[in-house]
């Protein structure tokens, strides 16, 4: 028995070994390696289809794509960067671009983009704003994000809450508070007025979603004049006021720190859902005509919302930079931008596509996103190489605050973490 | 050995044996050297630098700077705030003395600018502030010790109890043995996700089950008082089966005559347990305790998965290895994280040596 | 029997019967409590796995809402859509999460193969190198034996996480046998760093030390050299410890996460635990899919264990794993 077992195991290993070494293939056109994150099914399928079309459309370059699990995407990119093993073209969540550019593993795209002025003029300003660091453009996204509040029209009407339709008549803080109280009466007993998607966990969502609240209250994540210190900003009076209000949502039972799952809003257990564009396909399927998109409230003087999403950059170690740009240009072709935006519900990055899309036109379901992006409501996340540390520190603070921690203490800790990191990196002085 | 004269061992035989020994040792030695020892020495070297994972800045040798940042702890005597008019100490509504804000004190000195409070203690009528340069590290260290202090005895005792249960000469013991062992073959990263789901305070299965018997609801991972405890339950659930099998092996080696002799002496079940079982399992227990301790100190995956890498809430589940991974990989401070690993290995080393000393020298 | 009943008076007989009844009663009570307690523990140990499998067979919308009810243990509206849903793109399909099942989202056969291949290679290679090293330490005259042994015991405590980054820097510079610098994104980068294992050497060492010397002395007289003794005498005697080490190493590496994460990209060489990160992104977490994936990664190992469990417990017993 024992011997047979070992023989069988060894044979198995030998077969596997033969398999393992047998998988090597050769290519002839110039290969452009591409990494992208495995997003939702429809997104991934759309991107795969576009890449297939690219390979079929020409024979000079061949895109070889690798899909990386999203949950550990940044970790894998960092490991590859350490090992000098990055691909030619890769996508990454927007605000990481400054760190990547500072570290020197991306190349500026300005010269390439200058060759195609039509495209340059067509890209929406928020995309350029997000990709710019030290006056150079390092990344381009084929779509932007939209962050506002999804509402259940039936519930809003039942609670007699005014439904704003433009960024000008967005709710004020008092109105928002009153609306939440009023909605308490119309949500079921096991529900709550506002869904904040806390189930996403302490990660980028916390920064993307909740730093606009800070900004609308008049605070921010870091002092943006020189990006040298967060102290007094992330833990300043306005920020503390913002996060104290935020904590109140949990304390007063207006939202949950541990939502049951992603279906709270779809199942009618929450009247409002504070989340980005990516839920649109699901929400519209579940609620249909009852789904309304409400602009971000004006917590203070003015409203603020998030922007930026996954972007493409070309690496400095790439042997086929022209090929990478050729592929990026293909990804930015109007048809492809549209195909991708349709699949994901994201805001297309080209004005021409946006204008042709009825959803973003006045009265369209997603018009609020368009207004917010062009109307100055959207704020880019801090354009500094310290961003990875800033976002971790802030997400942790949000986590602690949601769980009932002292607001000032949590934000002080975030400020110290950020400032210490900046000091440790000599202020993230730009490369020359 | 049918020999009249012992064979005289010629030096060449020794040589042959030495060569063979070196030959047989070398694959493992080479692999360990290459993939564990050299990287560890690299880590030691890196701990003296400000090396970052990815940075355009040149790496500088900073001597013991990382160790200073990691280990620096200071004590500040706190003077109560005085009323500016009367010069009498201020008191709050409950009559307690009012002390100045900790952060103001720490930030007054550029050296302690990033320090955070660890604790405040009253000693001989004076309030002292203990502040650490890397407060999270000390909390993580305390949590790691706490985890080991709870898990090691609890898991060892539980494993012994399970082993005695499944060692009974009754029907179906094979079934129970299998079931109790089964969590060991699950993957920690995966079952952590599962337990995270079950710990949800609002809809999680654990609260639902406890609710049936009128307990709870508990806020498991959300509450700093119970978060580490939640991690402990999962860890024991996943790991105890293995120790059970080891104890079972030990139990089966105890000669039956020992029990019979004890029975003749009139020893009851408890006396049999303390006088026969425990002493006979001495070596097994030492093995279980030491190996569980080493594993306990390496606590990482469960916490990383269940707290999204934060070690929260409020550092209540931060562990040394989590801090190391967060600093070295996620905050890209390779040099600093290397200092953490050097300190960590030193601590575990001291503990294992002490444990071995104490456990093996104890009179039975 | 009959002679006894004749001699004992009726009163004494009744007393004896009462004693026997009392004993039976106590015995029944003891057995009931005993089995009751053991069954309670069965619940503690299996319910998470049961929940995992049951949840994986439910439509997404029921997965978490059922947790508050008895349905947590009942696969109502059973479906395989979390496992596979080939036509997920068509609007008519019932699986509404828009991503398909686990088999659509991930190349599961490939991932399984990778996990099995990497793990069994580590185990097999490890059995060779670690047992040989232990043999050299335990039974051969080796210069510097004490130092090597101390070093091995010290290495047990070094956590992998603490050397991960330097190791990455190191393997990145290492040449592979074909002369190229190609360690990243391969099988061998996941295998060789873990083949030698200090704890395995320690377990082998302890076992080898306790094998009586007479065995090899006899063989030596018959003219067998050291290696032959290892192969013909030690290895056959040490089967249980080989099995135990194999199982321990398998379990340790089947779940390994950090290293494959750092050294592989995409799904060509990566293992199951890394691939699980597909489900944890900005996109909503689909618990049904997660449970399906977790079941797929857990159940086969569980089945293999069930098949071999009797053999396994015996091995650990016989291997004398202890201080």
The helix-and-strand class of chain C reads: mainly alpha
Shape of chain A: globular
Q: How many strand elements of chain A?
A: 12
Label the CATH architecture of the largest domain in chain A: 3-Layer(aba) Sandwich
User: In the residues of chain A, how many domains can be counted?
Assistant: 2
Q: What is the third-level CATH name, the topology of the largest domain in chain C?
A: MetI-like fold
Question: What portion of residues of chain C belong to β-strands?
Answer: under 5%
Which short descriptors sum up this protein?
heterotrimer, A: 432 residues, alpha/beta, 2 domains, four-stranded mixed β-sheet, 18 helices, B: 364 residues, three-stranded antiparallel β-sheet, 60% helix
Walk me through the structure.
With 432 residues, chain A is an alpha/beta fold. Chain A has helices at 2-22, 41-57, 73-82, 97-103, 110-114, 117-122, 125-131, 153-158, 173-184, 204-216, 237-251, 280-287, 321-331, 334-344, 351-356, 367-374, 387-402, 407-424, and strands spanning 30-38, 61-69, 89-93, 132-133, 136-137, 143-144, 147-152, 192-195, 270-276, 291-294, 310-314, 347-348. Chain A is built from 18 helices and 12 strands. Chain A is globular and about 65 Å long. In chain B, 60% of the residues lie in helices and 6% in strands. Chain B has helices at 11-46, 65-71, 102-108, 135-166, 173-181, 188-199, 205-212, 227-253, 256-264, 269-280, 282-297, 301-306, 320-330, 334-361, and strands at 73-78, 116-123, 126-132. In chain B, helix 9 (256-264) runs antiparallel to helix 10. With 323 residues, chain C is mostly helical. Chain C has 2 domains: 2-56; 106-317, MetI-like (MetI-like fold, Orthogonal Bundle). In chain C, helix 5 (108-139) packs parallel to helix 8 (188-195). Chain C is flat and about 70 Å long. The chains are: A alpha/beta (432), B mainly alpha (364), C mainly alpha (323). The interface between B and C is large, with 97 and 95 residues.
């Amino acid at each position: 028995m024992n011997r047979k077992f070992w023989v069988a195991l060894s044979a198995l290993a030998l077969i596997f070994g033969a398999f393992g070494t047998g998988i090597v293939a050769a290519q002839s056109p110039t290969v452009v390696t591409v990494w992208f994150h495995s997003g939702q099914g429809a997104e991934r399928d759309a991107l795969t289809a576009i890449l297939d079309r690219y390979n079929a459309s020409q024979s000079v370059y061949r895109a070889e794509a690798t899909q990386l699990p999203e949950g550990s995407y940044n970790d894998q990119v960092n490991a590859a960067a350490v090992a000098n093993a990055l691909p030619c073209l890769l996508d990454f969540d927007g605000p990481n671009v400054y760190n990547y550019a500072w570290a020197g593993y991306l190349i500026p795209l300005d010269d390439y983009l200058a060759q195609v002025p039509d495209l340059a003029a067509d890209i929406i300003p928020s995309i350029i704003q997000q990709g710019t660091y030290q006056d150079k453009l390092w990344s381009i996204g084929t779509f932007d994000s939209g962050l506002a509040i999804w509402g259940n029209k039936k519930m809003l009407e039942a609670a007699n809450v005014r439904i704003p339709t433009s960024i000008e008549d967005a709710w004020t803080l008092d109105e928002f508070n009153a609306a939440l109280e009023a909605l308490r009466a119309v949500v079921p007993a096991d529900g709550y007025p506002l869904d904040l998607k806390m189930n996403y966990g302490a990660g980028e969502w916390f920064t993307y979603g909740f730093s606009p609240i800070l900004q609308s209250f008049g605070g921010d994540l870091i002092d943006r004049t020189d990006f040298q210190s967060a102290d007094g900003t992330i833990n300043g009076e306005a920020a503390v006021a913002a996060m104290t209000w935020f904590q109140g949502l949990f304390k007063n039972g207006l939202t949950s720190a541990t939502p049951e799952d992603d279906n709270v809003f779809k199942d009618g257990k929450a009247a409002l859902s504070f989340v980005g564009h990516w839920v649109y396909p699901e929400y519209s399927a579940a609620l249909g005509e009852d789904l309304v998109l409400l602009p971000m409230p004006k917590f203070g003087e003015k409203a603020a919302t998030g922007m930026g999403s996954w972007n493409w950059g070309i690496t400095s170690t790439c042997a086929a930079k022209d090929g990478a740009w050729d592929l990026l240009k293909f990804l930015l072709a109007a048809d492809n931008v549209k195909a991708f935006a349709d699949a994901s519900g994201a805001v297309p990055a080209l004005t021409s596509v946006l204008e042709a899309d009825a959803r973003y036109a006045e009265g369209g379901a997603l018009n609020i996103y368009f207004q917010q992006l062009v109307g100055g409501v959207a704020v880019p996340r801090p354009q500094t190489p310290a961003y990875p540390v800033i976002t971790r520190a802030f997400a942790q603070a949000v986590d602690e605050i949601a769980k009932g921690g002292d607001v000032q203490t949590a934000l002080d800790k975030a400020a110290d973490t950020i400032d210490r990191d900046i000091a440790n990196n000599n202020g993230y002085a730009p490369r020359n | 050995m049918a020999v009249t004269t012992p064979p005289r061992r010629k030096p060449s035989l020794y040589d042959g044996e030495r060569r063979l020994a070196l030959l047989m040792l070398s694959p493992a030695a080479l692999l360990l050297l290459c993939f564990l020892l050299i990287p560890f020495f690299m880590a030691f070297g890196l701990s003296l630098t400000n090396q970052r994972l990815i940075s355009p800045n040149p790496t500088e040798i900073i001597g013991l700077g990382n160790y200073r940042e990691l280990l620096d702890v200071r004590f500040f005597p706190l003077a109560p705030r005085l009323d500016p008019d009367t010069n009498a100490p201020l008191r709050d509504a409950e009559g307690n003395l009012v002390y100045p804000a900790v952060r103001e004190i720490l930030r007054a000195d550029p050296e302690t600018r990033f320090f955070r409070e660890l604790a405040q203690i009253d000693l001989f009528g004076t309030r002292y502030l203990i502040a650490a340069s890397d407060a999270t590290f000390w909390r993580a260290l305390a949590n790691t010790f706490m985890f080991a202090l709870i898990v090691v005895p609890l898991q060892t005792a539980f494993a012994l109890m399970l082993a005695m249960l499944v060692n009974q000469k009754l029907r179906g013991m094979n079934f129970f043995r299998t079931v109790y062992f089964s969590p060991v073959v699950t993957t920690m990263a995966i079952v952590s996700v599962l337990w995270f789901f079950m710990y949800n305070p609002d809809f999680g299965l654990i609260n639902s089950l406890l609710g049936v018997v009128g307990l709870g609801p508990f806020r498991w991972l959300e509450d700093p008082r119970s978060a580490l405890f939640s991690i402990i339950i999962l860890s024991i659930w996943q790991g105890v089966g293995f120790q059970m099998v080891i104890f079972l092996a030990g139990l089966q080696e105890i000669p039956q005559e020992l029990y019979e002799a004890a029975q003749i002496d009139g020893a009851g079940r408890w006396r049999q347990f303390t006088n026969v079982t425990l002493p006979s399992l001495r070596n097994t227990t030492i093995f279980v305790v030491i190996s569980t301790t080493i594993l306990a100190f390496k606590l990482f995956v469960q916490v990383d998965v269940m707290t999204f890498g934060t070690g929260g809430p409020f550092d209540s589940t931060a562990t040394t290895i989590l801090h190391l991974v967060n600093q070295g990989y996620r905050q890209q401070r390779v040099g600093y994280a290397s200092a953490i690993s050097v300190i960590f290995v030193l601590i575990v080393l001291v503990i294992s040596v002490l444990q071995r000393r104490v456990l093996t020298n104890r009179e039975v | 029997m009959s002679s006894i009943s004749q001699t004992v008076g009726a009163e004494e007989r009744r007393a004896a019967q009462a004693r026997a009844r009392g004993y039976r009663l106590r015995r029944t009570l003891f057995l009931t409590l005993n089995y009751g307690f053991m069954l309670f523990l069965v619940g503690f140990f299996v319910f998470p796995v049961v929940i995992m499998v049951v949840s994986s067979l439910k439509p997404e919308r029921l997965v978490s809402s059922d947790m508050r009810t008895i349905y947590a243990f009942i696969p109502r509206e059973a479906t395989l859509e979390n496992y596979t849903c080939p036509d997920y793109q068509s609007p008519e399909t019932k699986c509404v999460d828009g991503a398909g099942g686990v088999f659509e989202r991930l190349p599961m056969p490939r991932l399984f193969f990778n996990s099995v291949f990497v793990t069994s290679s580590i185990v097999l290679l490890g059995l060779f190198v670690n047992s040989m090293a232990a043999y050299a330490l335990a039974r051969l005259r080796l210069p510097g034996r004490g130092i090597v042994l101390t070093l091995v015991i010290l290495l047990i405590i070094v956590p992998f996480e603490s050397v991960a980054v330097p190791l990455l820097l190191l393997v990145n510079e290492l040449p592979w046998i074909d002369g190229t610098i190609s360690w990243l994104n391969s099988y061998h980068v996941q295998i060789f760093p873990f083949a030698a294992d200090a704890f395995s050497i320690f377990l082998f060492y302890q076992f080898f030390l306790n094998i009586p010397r007479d065995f090899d002395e006899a063989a030596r007289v018959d003219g067998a050299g050291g290696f032959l003794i290892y192969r013909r005498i030690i290895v056959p005697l040490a089967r249980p410890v080989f099995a135990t080490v194999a199982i321990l190493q398998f379990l340790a590496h089947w779940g390994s996460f950090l290293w494959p994460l750092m050294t592989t990209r995409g799904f060509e060489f990566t293992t199951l635990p890394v691939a699980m990160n597909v489900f944890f992104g900005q996109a909503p977490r689909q618990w049904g899919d997660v449970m399906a994936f977790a079941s797929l990664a857990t159940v086969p190992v569980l089945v293999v264990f069930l098949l071999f469990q009797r053999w396994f417990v015996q091995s650990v017993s016989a291997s004398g794993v202890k201080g």
